[in-house]
Design goal:
CATH class of the largest domain: Mainly Beta
CATH topology of the largest domain: Thrombin, subunit H
Strand order of the largest sheet: 1-2-5-4-3-12
Number of helices: 3
Order of helices and strands: HHHEEEEEEEEEEEE
Helix content: 25-40%
CATH architecture of the largest domain: Beta Barrel
Strand content: 25-35%
Length: about 290
């Protein structure tokens, strides 16, 4: 008999009976319409039901949150794709705008100089050591390009063809020390020549040496080609005077001239293959 009372199953049965009895008493006390057994069962299982409802609520919220996160991730991906498309459209627009500006400038030069014949060309590489001194174009003898053909961007002189192959050519810019150009200052009319400084800076620079002590050339003066020598046509813009310095070698001064063209931003230029006076050596001035 003692073994029965000590048995775990028997103890569990006693606990259930006590719980049901207690539930019946509570149900009777509250005067509800439920039967004592159902009320007792409800009283015992109520905490479990509440816990089950809590878990169901939390799972539902988690599921909704998971679905919302997935939806947001998809919307974010689509927005990024749209932004990428808009950025590409802006890049295409800017490239087209730049190209249109190039051709507008070209048409302006052509209208002012009907004797000019051009060949447009794209820059395919720059000098590794000094990108401001020289670069290579994708046009050559097959396109009628010759050594000493001037290269321009708008009305600005960029440089001159230094060597040429059937399909490409190398251009020396006015910043190259090997380049010499006969020029004049538009305000004073003073004539001289510019040569490249060979310096690598934010723009193309060249030097106008041999200025006399009483020279009126000053900063902001505009330097243009004279047309002397038969290599460059007259009145191409070389650049603007940025400073005047005294030469240490003699009693003269020299002007530093900065080109209006930024070589780093160039992608396309025009080569003048023919113009009136090309190859004809002329001398003007004092």
């Amino acid at each position: 008999m003692k073994k029965i009372f000590r048995n775990r199953a028997f103890k569990a049965l006693i606990c259930v009976i006590v719980a049901l009895s207690l539930g019946a008493v509570i149900a009777a006390y509250t005067h509800n319409n439920s039967t004592p057994l159902s009320s007792a069962t409800s009283t015992v299982l109520h905490p479990l039901q509440r816990f089950s409802s809590y878990l169901s609520y939390k799972f539902s919220n988690f599921n909704d949150s998971f679905k919302s996160s997935s939806k947001l991730a998809e919307e974010n991906r689509k927005l990024k794709e749209q932004i990428g498309e808009y950025q590409n459209e802006i890049i295409d627009y800017n490239n087209l705008k730049k190209k249109l500006k190039t051709y507008e400038d070209f048409l302006g030069v052509k209208e002012e100089n009907p004797d000019f014949k051009f060949e447009n060309a794209k820059i395919i590489s720059n000098d590794f050591e000094n990108p401001f001194a020289s670069f290579t174009l994708n046009k050559g003898t097959a396109n009628g390009i010759k050594i000493n053909d001037p290269v321009i961007y708008g009305k600005n002189l960029v440089g001159v063809v230094a060597s040429v192959s059937p399909t490409s050519c190398t251009v020396y810019t006015i910043s190259n020390p090997k380049t010499n150009v006969s020029v004049y200052e538009t305000y004073t009319g003073e004539i001289g020549y510019v040569t490249g400084t060979g310096e690598t800076e934010d723009r193309v620079y060249c030097k106008l040496p041999g200025l006399k002590s009483d020279s009126s050339v000053s900063p902001s003066g505009i330097i243009c080609t004279t047309g002397n020598g038969g290599i460059y046509p007259k009145d191409l813009i070389v650049g603007t005077v940025v400073k005047i310095e005294n030469s240490k070698e003699d009693g003269t001064s020299f002007a530093t001239v900065r080109s209006a063209v930024n070589i780093e931003e160039l992608s396309e230029v025009f080569i003048i293959t023919e113009f009136e006076g090309q190859g004809v050596i002329t001398i003007t001035g004092d």
